[in-house]
Amino acid sequence: MCPFSQTPATISETSGTALPESIVHEERAQLDFSQSMSYGDYLQLDAILTAQKPLSPAHDEMLFIVQHQTSELWMKLMLHELRAAIAHIANDELQMAFKMLARVSKIMEQLVHAWDVLATMTPPEYTAMRPYLGQSSGFQSYQYRSIEFALGNKNRAMLKPHEHRADLLAQVQAAYEAPSLYDEALRLLARRGIPVPASHLERDWTQPYAESDGVEQAWLVVYRNPKEHWDLYQLGEELTDLEDAFRLWRFRHVTTVERVIGFKRGTGGTGGVSYLRKMLDVVLFPEIWKLRTDL
Asked: pLDDT by residue (tens digit) across 175-196?
């Protein structure tokens, strides 16, 4: 008698290994979800996976939609972490803030690699679907704008694209009017007894950040004696990591757009690549970068 003949449902006669079905039963996996919450229920997959509604007959529009929808999900998480990190810094809870800022940097790495997937779309493929986009553009992303505002790149004109939706405008305006991540970092330095110019501690938070020699001197106190100011020194490096990742994200965006559409104007009305290249020159935490030369 074949040694495997008595257990045909659980043992493969050719390999002697357990069959997949038997493994599932042996592990006592739950298989009936008629009375309990399933994976798809928890994640609301019915809503998420039916949210892709291409408007063109082009095969590649699905890539374009999924790319931008997943990016918006990552940005939702990024805002969740950024807002909490800012609050923790305001409350002198730096260790918790560090974990969140590190997570934001990792999210940006994910967004950098996401452009690699979109870059597989060729110019003819994009051209086939572009007329169906109308005036919609990533330029109008209220989450991205809220991230930029939270990082200190304030620009009143960027409120305008959201005025047609009072609920979205309220979210963007809240980020616009609040102290940025860097503003709270400077206020923390001052609370620790490091001299920071008064002009950078209580100001109109809606105004773009202005670089200051006095602020650089404050950071130099930290960087010249990291052992004495270790957590502030670590905060400076977390901010450096964050801006480094943000620069890569923006740069990869520029190169992908140029690869796919060249120098055509963007659907949102900007110059496309020319506009994005100008954004590469924006420095979020200027004194933290400048001190590396002056240290």
From this structure: 999 999 999 999 999 999 999 9
Query: In 126-211, which ranges are E strands?
Result: none
CB contact at 8 A, 119 and 256? yes
49 vs 260, higher pLDDT: 49
Radius of gyration of the chain (CA): 25
Reading the block at residue 54, the tokens are 């291409």
Is a pLDDT exceeding 50 seen at residue 17? yes
- Asked whether 245 and 112 are in contact (CB, 8 A), the reply is yes
Angstrom CA distances, 12 to 3, 24, 25, stand at 11, 15, 16
Residues 6+ apart with CB under 8 A from 157: none
| Res. 4 pLDDT band, cuts 50 70 90 | very low
Contact between 118 and 256 (Cβ < 8 Å): yes
pLDDT of residue 102: 97
> What span, in angstroms and rounded, lies between the C-alpha atoms of 268 and 140?
8
Helix/strand/coil percentages in the chain, nearest 5: 65, 0, 35
Percent of the chain with pLDDT over 70: 92
Sign of CA dihedral 110, 115, 121, 127: positive
Surface-to-core class of residue 182, CB atoms within 10 Å of its CB (0-12 exposed, 13-18 middle, 19+ buried): buried
E strands along 170-289, which residues?
Answer: none
Q: Classify residue 23 as left (phi > 0), alpha (psi -120 to 50) or beta.
A: alpha
18 φ, ψ (degrees, to nearest 5)? -65, 145
Alpha-carbon span 16 to 1, nearest angstrom: 15
Which letter does DSSP use for residue 11 in this model?
B
Q: How confident is the model at residue 295 (pLDDT cuts 50, 70, 90)?
A: very high
Tokens describing residue 233: 């020194």
62 neighbors 52 (Cβ within 8 angstroms): yes
Residue type, 46: D
